[in-house]
Every structure is written in structure tokens, then in C-alpha cells.
Automatic annotation (TrEMBL), chain A:
This is Alpha-E domain-containing protein. PANTHER family: BLR5612 PROTEIN, SLL1039 PROTEIN. Residues 1-309 form the DUF403 domain. It holds the Pfam family Alpha-E. InterPro entries: ATP-dep_Glu-Cys_Ligase-2, DUF403. It comes from Paeniroseomonas aquatica.
Amino acid sequence: MLSRTADSLFWLARYTERAGNVARGLGVASRMAAVSARFGAEADEWRSLITASGGDETFYRKYETPAADSVVHWLVFDPENSSGIMSCIEAARRNARAVRTALTVDMWEALNDTWNQLRAMPPESMEGEKLVDFLGWVRERVTLFNGAAHDTMLRNEAWRFVHLGTMLERADNTARLLDVKHHLLTAEAEGAVDYVQWQAVLRSVSALRSYQWIYRDRLQPRLIAELMILRPELPRSLMACFAEVAETLEAIALGQGGRRGECHRVAGTLQAQLRFGRIDAIMEEGLHGFLTTMIDRAAALGGEIDAFYIQHA
Amino acid sequence: MGAASSVSQAKTAAFDEMRAEEGVRAAYAEIDRWLRATPREQLDSKRHEAELLFRRIGITFAVYGEGGDPERLIPFDIIPRIIARTEWDRMATGLRQRVRALNAFLGDVYGKQEILRAGRVPTALVLENEGYRAEMVGVAPPGGVYTHVAGIDMVRTGPDEFYVLEDNCRTPSGVSYMLENREAMLRLFPRLCARHRIAPVGRYPEELLETLKAVAPPRAGADPCVVVLTPGPYNSAYYEHCFLADEMGIEVVEGADLGVENDVVFMRTTAGPKRVDVIYRRIDDEFLDPTVFRADSMVGVPGLMAAYRAGNVALANAPGAGIADDKAIYPYVPEMVRFYLGEEPLLANVPTFLCEREEDRKYVLGNLDKLVVKLAKGSGGYGMMIGPHATWDLREEFRTRILAKPGDYIAQPTLALSTCPTVVDQGIAPRHVDLRPFILSGGKEIRIVPGGLTRVAIREGSLVVNSSQGGGTKDTWILEDEGPGEEPQPAQSQSQTAAG
């Protein structure tokens, strides 16, 4: 497959997944902000969301304080934020248009309709009272795209690069969401607010129910961290995502007669580390340090994939 | 899409391909019955259905820099344009002959230049022409083919009068419409199609691929790597580039996807560099290779021409093929047929006046109100004047322009372009049409799929059929002469015979 085609497939999947993840984060943060307002900690929610979306530098150059208005504007509309919902959908559709023949009709229509509908939406239908509905719509569209890809793509290299993009982006997102709340999971003290926060963390990866199914116990920080980092059953856990990444890279290598590079080594190492890791050891060494390393290595892996398959460095 | 097609309306009524003086022409008998039997509302709903179909498939024609929606739809007329088999066969024989001559001419002007030495075509007209690529002198393209895909624009003025309006030897476009229009007709009017014996066009991508494979360098073996080279998504014909690549099952690549090392072209794939043998390029000559042609080209491939000269890759069409379709060269094509093939040309040219020649210029300036004046280099219907329709001011403007740069202009009489019934807002009315058949040359073989792109000027009285100027398209049916109804119906499935 052409490197440019692979690159576009990888990125259209990443941007689509990112749009969905921003919608998830924003949905949970706005819910939390309402709760925290009673304790005067509303700004903390918005601040940690900006941090999670990786926008610390650029956001503060433009806005003074993180508040509902500025954060929603930044994460939904602002064209200067390349990770904002509109920017992501725009970038996904641009990549899709460049490789239309590599997509199935269902995938193209899922992306193209999303883009067309978004273009036609008045801004007032995306903020204030309507924000929650709008975020739900974004998540639905992302689910539709993922379903279209999963259901209609031939299981060849095109599918693998799409899947690689989705899974790498999802891993990155889970690590970030968890990292901004790491202090809540390591602090000894436990109050009512913390409990709500824990619920919020789980909700952001659609895992509140899953937690109950797996542990049948009240929420505990150590188990929340274990679920989101190490449990293979949770489809958005680091373990699950990085396993998919490593297996997909392996499938590409097998399709090319065993041609492998640094990206395969990095992916394999990450997978092994998570597969054989223990949550107590991770907590002991420091959750924040561990998650930061994960985020850095996900980025490094993206770079190695680019170098090996796209740029031929 | 394509170059200017401007043959003007004469004062007398134009030849209508459906209605002759003595009644409906035989080939259109079934269409006539169908049109009579179909209420207007039904035609309208089918028109609407057709539009939705084209939008959904995404067959758009990109027009940038004019404001408005850049992804436009070319109007599709649901009434097919019909050509009888005998008419087509005669035209096809002529097209083969003409393309053979054009190819021979290209091989000659980049080789021995015999036609110039014989004085049959003015030397300066060729060697000083912008379309002439000195870089191609002495290069022998694989199979001796220069114009692998030619689009010859044909117009009709009477039952037996066909003219070549212009030749397109560079990168003619529009063939995707020929294919998609047929698909649309089969979907919208299955029964109407079944009542006709329509020559199929669906083989075109296969024939194109065969043609391209036939000119691969010998070392490529039985399964050469063929690609389509596109300038990218902002090109007006991008849809067509992707469509053809998809139909042929090959990659559509951009300049940045290709690289040249040791005079070998390769494409960047996820499995590493892959050698490329044949490039169906839909990029103009000037942009092909920044180290040889325009240095500012962002869409080309540095080193491509060196690889081509080394015989390591085939380019279709060959660089420099444009010299053969130059509007100033056009009047000499019949001469090429005689010179190279020793035959009389089967297809007629529209009489053409070269303003560069003093005698011609005098005539043109004296008859501006009767002639069509075109830029010799123009395309897309831009920069031309249709004398009988032009204002006095416009005619005077062209007089000044011709006097200032006579070499830039040619003129032709206004032909009464034939018309076909077309659905318009007021009902069904005759509208002027032309036809672009596509002729494929690979090695010894010339292939023509029976059909082509019929373009129709939707505006009443308009003679400009270019899609960039509001022209539409029709499906083109080449019909077997026996006419409808003679095809035996398939036998019914056997049923139980009543006992007793």
C-alpha cells in the first residue's frame, strides 16, 4: 500500500477517535464542574481537562482562566486548537477525501455526513444547555464510524492502519485522563468529592458499570487504576489498547514477509510491560511517573510507525 | 474537462438527430415512443433521482477560484444520444486512421522530421510551438506510441456529415462520465435500455490497462507495475483519476509518492520502495519533472525524465504529444494522413483559418461576424468569440487582439452543430451536442470502446458544450441498426403443462 494512503488512514482514524475522546472528557468535566461548584473547585475541573487534552501551552496564551465558556470554545470550535472537535472532524474528513478509494462507502459516508452536518449546525446548538446533546451526537458519530470500519473493511493493510490509529489514540487518551486525576487515586484521604471524582474517571472511559462487574466492590483508587491500566477486559484500558497496537503491527509485518522495525520492538515492550505489570508496584513507584512514561512512549511509538512505514527513515 | 468546442449556429435550422424532415429517424424510434408515453412529472422525478445518484457517488467536477461550491455536479441529461452502428463504424475507422497519423507525426517531429523537410508542414510552426518539447528529440518511447489515450472531438452537421472539431493528444478527460452515465441509465431506465441493443462501454478500464501494460519496458515482465499520476484532490478531474485507478485496480499516486534513484522510478509503499514501470500521468508536461520543465512544479517528480529517457519507465501520454493537438497544427492533420499512411483522410476537418497567414487574416478580419475565433492555445471554452452571437464591441476587441498577436488566433466558420432532444425547464427541446470518443493506442493495436462522451449545451442556442461553461452530458448509445424489437425475447421458463 502507498505510504501516503497508510498515513491518511492512520490519521483519519486518530482524529476521529480524538474527537470522540474530547467529547467524552468535556461531557464528564462539565458534569463534574456542576458538582464541584458547591465546593468552589469548579475551575479545577476545567484546568485538568485542558491539561488532559494537551493544551496547556496554547490555551493559556489565548485565554486567562479556564472556565466553562473558554474551555468549551477551545475544545469545540477554536480552529487554533488542532485537537478541538471541529478541527479533528475537519482533519479526519480531509484525510478521508485524499484516500477515498481506500475507504468503504459506509466509512466515507459516516465521516462525510458528520462533516456536512457539523458545517450546517448553528453554534448555539453546541453550547450551553445543548452542549450535552451535542457531545452525545459526536460520540454517536464516532461510534458509527468505528462500526462502519469494523463491519465493512477488508482485513488487509488498510484496515490495519485504521485500527492502529484508533488504538494508539485511545491508549494515549486513557493515559491522559487518568494522569490528570492521579492525585485523587494516590491520596490517602477519602471524601465525598473524591468518590464523585472516581466515578467521573470511570465514566469518561464508559467503565463505571464494568468496574462493578469485574470487582463487585466499592470504588477503590488502586482497583480503578488497575482496571484502566492493566485489565485486558476493559476495551479502553492501556493493556487492551497496546495489545491491539502490538498485534496489529505484527499482522502488518506478517503480511510483508516478516519485515519489522523499531516500532515493533517498542510496541512489544509496552505490551509486555503491561501484561506482566502489577498495580501495587506501579502505585509504589508513582502513578504519575508511570503514566507520563506511557504517554511519552505512545508518542514515541507513533513516531517510529511514521519513520518505518511512511517516511522510510 | 477538455478543450473548447465552439461550432456556431448557422441561420438555417441545425440538423436534429432525432427528427428529420420526413419524421423520426429510425435509430430514435423507440426513444420517441418512450418520450411520448412518459409524463413530464415522471421525467422530472427521474432527473432528480439521477442528480441524487451522482451526488452520492461523488462524481463531481471541481472548479476552484470562482467562488461558490467547489465540488460541482455536471448536469446530466436523461435522454440518451443515439448513433447508429453503421454511422459509428465509419467514424471509428476514420478515428483509427487519424490517430495512427497523429502518432506517426509525433514520432517524426521528434525523429527524422521528414514531414518538415518535405515542406508539408511549416517547420517554424512545429519547432517554435509551445507544445513542442525539444527534450523529446531522439527519445524513442516504448512501442513507438506517443498518444496512448486520444480524445477526438467530433461534431455533426447532417446525416452523413461529421467533422473533427479538435484533437486531444495530451491528457483528455471525461471518460469517467461515459462510464458513469451508462451506469446511471441502466439504473434509472432498465426497461428502456433492455428495449435497445446498446453496445456496452464497461470494458474501457480493462482496455486502458491492456494498453498501458503493452507499452511497459521489456524488463517489467508479464505483470508490470502501472500507476495513475494525479496532481491531487484539487485538480478538476481528480474524481476521474481515482475512478480509473480503482476500476483498473492500480494505485493513484501523487508526485510526492514517487521517487527516482539511478534512473529508476519507485513509489513509496508501506513495504518499502516499489519499482514503477508505467505511469498513466494526468499531469501536464510542464509539471512532470521540475529538473527538466518548470522548476516550481510542486506536483512533479524530480528525475522522472531521466528515467524515461533511460527507458526504465513508460509515460502515457508521452511528453510533447501536445504538439499534435495544437490548434494551429490541426489544419495539417489531413496532410499527415496522406503523408504517413498514403491514404485519403476519412474524417473531415472544419475549415480553419490561421490568422498568422496574411491571406487568412484578411478573410477573418473581414468576416468576424460569421466566424468563431479561438485562441490557438486556449482550452475549456475560454478566450473565444462566436461571431454571430458577439456584440460589436467584442468583435472590435478581437480585431485589435488578432492584429496585435495574429499567431495566437485561429478562426473557423460557424457550423450548424447538430441537436438532440434534451430535457429543459420548458419541456423537451433540441440542444446542440458534440461527441468525444476515446481512442487507445498501445503497441500495434488501436482500441476504441463503442461510445464516448456526449456533451450538450443546455442553454438555448448556445454552442459551448464545455463543462466549465455550463455544458451538460448525455449517455451515448451506439445502436445496432436492426433497431428495437428485433432482438428475440428470451424464452420463458418452462411451466407445467395442464394435463388432459
